[in-house]
Amino acid sequence: MGKVKCECGHVNPHGTILCESCGRALTEEAKKENLVDMRYEGSARRSQTYNKTIIDKVWNFFSSVKVGIWVIVLILVAASFGTILPQEFYIPGNIPPETYYEDVYGTFGKIYYMIGFHDLYNSVWFIALIAALGVSLVIASLDRVVPLYRALKTQRVDRHESFMKKQRLFAEQQAVLQESDLQKVREELKKKRYKIREVNGALFAEKNRFTRWGPYVNHAGLIIFLFGAMLRSVQGMYVDELLWIREGETLQIPGAGGDYYIKNDGFTLENYEEGEDPEVFNEAIDRVGTVAKNYQTDAVLYRNSNNDLPGAEPELKKVLEDDIQVNQPMKFNSFAVYQTSFREDEMKAMHFALTNKTTGEEVGDVVIDLFDQQKSYDLGNGYKVELKGYYPDFDGFTKEGEPISKSPLPNKPAFLFNMISPEKPEGEVSFVEIQNTMEPLGETIYKMKFKNLETRDVSALTIRKDLTLPILVIGGIIFMIGVIQGSYWNHRRIWIREKGGYIYTAGHTNKNWHGLKREIDSVLDGTAIPEPKDRQKD
Amino acid sequence: MSDLAGVSSTLLYAAFIFYLVGTFLFGGSIRQKGLRDDERLNRWGIFAITATIIGFIAQLGYFFTRWAAAGHAPVSNLFEFITFFGMMVVGAFILIFFIYKTAILGLFALPIAVIIIAYASMFPREISPLIPALQSDWLHIHVTTAAAGQGILAISFIAGIIYLVKNIDQSVSTKKTKWLEVIMFTILSVVGFIIVTTSFGLANYSASFEYVNKEEASAVQEFTLPALVGPNEGVLVTEGKMEPFVDMPAFINANKLNTVLWSLATGTLLYLLIRLLFKKRVAALMQPLVRNVSSDLLDEISYRSVLIGFPVFTLGALIFAMIWAQIAWTRFWGWDPKEVWALITFLFYAAFLHLRLSKGWHGERSAWLSVVGFGIIMFNTVAVNLVIAGLHSYA
Ligand code: HEM
């Protein structure tokens, strides 16, 4: 493509609006304008130059800030819709979403569910919007950063007066530049950390050019972050498992390929207590009732050194012991194990005494482990209790009179016993559930008297591995550097030049014109150099 | 220990008084002529900013004594958090004030801070122990940074509202004047909330209702304002108290809705009273106060506050939040409503900054945007906590 040669001799890329070097307007429109558009220094941006092929059109579409803003606003609005009702992953797990939304929120809930807003953030269109944001970020940044870099690098000290005249901050005055004034200006500018260059009696002061790269740095950070978030779906990068583990149990850690086992050595729930904890909390404890202080699982981590041998029994070697608390996960390798939830006092074992109903004499104790029952319990001297049936979550009888169990969890255990005694060597049948005993086959001499219950807590641990985190961290840091770089400094430039008996001063900043204006005024204070006026004031 | 808590409340009270005094002094300072762009502060202005700074120091005193008394940073319940947010608004105002030296900003920023702190005081004020999820240094790192960012962004709103009060033509009734009145009415409703809550609080009003909750279980709700609306299948159990006009369905928290209704009603009353008394729109009433300040300067202050506040907000409300969420909740992001609204705030201000890049989005339009931004922040601070219950909702 043809290059554009400026009167000053500099050769500009095709599409340049203001000469990169001297600043003369190169296009007819730019020549007519009162104030030059300085946003990208009038440099040649691809999106402003080509518009023929499909690629050009896509490029131009995504490089437009207007489109970018639309994408941002659409994401924002969409995201807000997802907060109107709870998302699917926050509703109670035991109710199917198809009915939950309608049951709780009526017709509105039903519609919400039907249009898919119950899982909005995983919907294809929402993800497509995020993708559009990413594409837009990349293209818009590339479209601008390269030409901007070129233009700022090639800019000349002695800008053409037509360039200066079209700056927002500008003044001209018939006068001659005095060396004493210039000296004073140089000193003031240095104090304010400007970099000064002088050529042919023209002075150019510039500071904080680096801040112009801020947006590009932060966009790069965002892209890295989005890329990292995308990697989440790659196999092996991400593990999210929930493990319910009872006190005393040792279980394999899911998601770790069988390498690791974890033991629950005890779960503790502590509440704040008046008297024990600082007095200042009493009022709050009084008002709210109980306030939890600590959830903790004392855990032991084991490594299975036999994991590589197929079919071998696990051989567990202790790796570490840790108290897992909320905010203090146990960490090993790239895994973290979190305290997520708990269930207190799950039934573990029941103690009964085989008792003679008339004399009240207890023949012997039977302990039934609800997770590991025996077929029969021998009490000696001809006494024996057989467990004919065990219904961990007893839920009534079928029509045929068979007891049913709702689930394998010991929530409401019931037993069918056969009690063998010297008096009744064939045994007597008794059906025992909590606080209720039945004798379905006739009155018995003996009964299974309930003595007590052993319970234990169950702890829910989340097993998490997320190898995308380092990428997200890097993206986040780069983003922060970029926003700070772009926000907390301004790129300021001041031009002073004498030509044809006139002194021209002009100033430019990428933002905060008041600040620049004040700075220039204080630099020029007490000199004969004219203070520039802001020509865009209302 | 509890002595310290007492000292702490006194300091907060003192800060509150100083902010009020500061407001009046700023009022005096703008009455004098001048104060365009870069003129110097007058005596009133100096007194005003001094009172503000003393108030701010007193509030810092409140903050740290309460920290010492509780053993954790006082940002753990709604009262503490909103109070802290009020303090950050004042802090951000002081910061911006020293960049631009505009007294008029104080005349608007301080009353807003006063209202915020008074609003906060309507929530239970006792020092609460930390539940396990909050027991982390990230509590104060995350919350203070996020609130600081919000405070700075709030200054953008304050400059924006002054811009609108100054520049919107009050000689005719237009959509713009109406929206501006809506903003004024909203602020008055918050004042209304403070008034009704305080009044019925002083009268010890309390009425209990038995009702059927969302899980279809029987529960009890206590109303501290007379119930205009009652809970689902509610039965008044306290004798001699007002019966509600209608019952709400189970998924609506009738107590909170009732409070909102009372606030709106009182706000309406206040608003009508002002309109009747002065025969002018509220914004028109304020217009003479802001005549002297340069619109350009207000625009720059509004934009600058976003530039300063946006990185702080991002760091506190998103980055620190994600770090903590990773530690406390096992994942850095979970689309919890509060998280989503922090993201929305972030996106909104990102859009704001990009719009500033294009012509035509300076001045008035930008001022409207800063109002919307603040609306989003307040929605997230107040409404999401109270209305949309998520992991974040405080007791
Ligand atoms: C959430 C996503 C985004 C964030 C957080 C973000 C952030 C920023 C920030 C902080 C600035 C600096 C603004 C200023 O200093 O006034 C900026 C500038 C910019 N952004 Fe974005 N941006 C995002 C998305 C986009 C998108 C999608 C586009 C695509 C059109 C885009 C295009 C630009 C452009 C062209 C600039 C100006 C660059 C310059 O002045 O040289 N941004 N962005």
UniProtKB/TrEMBL annotation, chain A:
Positions of the ResB-like domain: 65-521
Compartment(s) of residence: Membrane
Keyword Transmembrane helix set for record: yes
Cross-referenced InterPro entries: Cyt_c_bgen_Ccs1/CcsB/ResB, ResB-like_domain
Keyword tags: Cytochrome c-type biogenesis, Membrane, Transmembrane, Transmembrane helix
GO terms under biological process: cytochrome complex assembly
Listed transmembrane segments: 67-85, 124-146, 216-234, 467-489
Recorded topology in the membrane: Multi-pass membrane protein
Protein known as: Cytochrome C biogenesis protein
Source organism: Domibacillus epiphyticus
Classification of source organism: Bacteria, Bacillati, Bacillota, Bacilli, Bacillales
Automatic annotation (TrEMBL), chain B:
Topology term for the membrane: Multi-pass membrane protein
Domain of life, per lineage: Bacteria
Parts forming coiled coils: none
GO cellular component: plasma membrane
Subcellular location: Membrane
Principal location listed in the UniProt entry: membrane
InterPro entries reported for this sequence: Cyt_c_assembly (IPR002541), Cyt_c_biogenesis_CcsA (IPR017562), Cyt_c_biogenesis_CcsA/CcmC (IPR045062)
GO biological process: cytochrome complex assembly
Signal peptide limits: none
Keywords: Cytochrome c-type biogenesis, Membrane, Transmembrane, Transmembrane helix
Any Pfam family matching the protein: Cytochrom_C_asm
GO molecular function, one term: heme binding
The protein's name in its UniProt record: C-type cytochrome biogenesis protein CcsB
